[in-house]
Amino acid sequence: MQKKIKATEAGLLVKNILSKQMGFSRREISRFHVASAIYLNDEKCRLTQEVHTNDVLTIRLEEPKLESKPVILYEDQDIVVVNKPAGIPSHASAEHFDDDMGSILKRYYQDNQFTVRTVGRLDKGVSGIVVYAKTKQMAALLASAREEQLLNKEYLAIVKGKFVEQRGSLTYTLGKEKGIRGRSVTMDGQKCITNYEVITEGNFFSLIRVHIETGRLHQIRAGMAHFGHPLIGDRLYGGSMHAMKRPALHCWKVEFVHPKTKQRIIIQCDLPEDMQKIVAKLQEGATTSKDL
Fold it and tell me: What is the longest distance spanned by two Cα atoms in the chain?
């Protein structure tokens, strides 16, 4: 993307050229800035830099990842459900404008008028099932289903330590504290209810199944860390980084009532390879803190 500056545009700022003359949105401009993709006369420039007649303003972005085909687990005319790999965001942001799963689906369908809308989300580093609506109407219906607990998710997580109780329910409140990254358990945050069941235990770590009755940002990650069981690989919440460089969390099952057909849909998804390797060590009973 390139533009040659006209005499009538001389003296304007780069950000003005991008927005008013080239028609980019604030989100797009923010993304260009974060990616250091803005060049003036082949040199990186600031958004507040002035332009002059015959200057050439260029946007240079790396080509998005061209996944040939997303892993689709279920699809009909209103809904598509995919297995999202770890490392790919669920939806677009200023930092991830076209390499998120929604954009990957849009390229897969090859329809510029087609927009998928995520129903719930998974953190970038978390793998597993994500539900997308193909229409605005279906997005609203599925959102209502979530609120009425007619759309439920189950997760598998590998966490530090052994549990006194093999199954239980944790109730806490999460909020955002100034100066602290992530979420913290606070007195006046959002209520969280997290149910867990231990599947396999090792010497120092456990594989658990998790069902959340409330859908809060970082509910499982922050909650487990607060109760002394941070997820393996979760740097943000104090998890061990030996075996994994991302949170050991996978959405393995989604169950919902289809808003139109009223049919109960159950979708399951196997653990990714990185988590399978750790589970194998747990089942062998040979895990040590150094292994994980």
Answer: 74
Domain with CATH 3.30.2350.10 in the chain: 72-284
Using CA atoms, how far residue 8 sits from 4, 12, 29, 51, 53, in Å, is 12, 9, 22, 11, 8
Q: What confidence tier does 66 reach under pLDDT thresholds 50, 70, 90?
A: very low
Topology classification of domain 72-284? Pseudouridine synthase (3.30.2350)
| Other CB atoms within 10 Å distance of the CB of residue 128 | 24
**Going by DSSP bridges, is the β-strand pair 127-133/249-257 parallel, antiparallel, or unpaired?**
parallel
Tokens matching residue 207: 């594989």
pTM, rounded to two decimals: 0.75
Q: For 1-44, write each residue's pLDDT tens digit.
A: 789 999 999 999 999 999 998 988 887 888 788 878 899 999 99
Domain 2-59: CATH superfamily is: RNA-binding S4 domain (3.10.290.10)
Highest mean pLDDT among 143-152, 192-201, 235-244: 192-201
| 3 state SS of 267 | strand
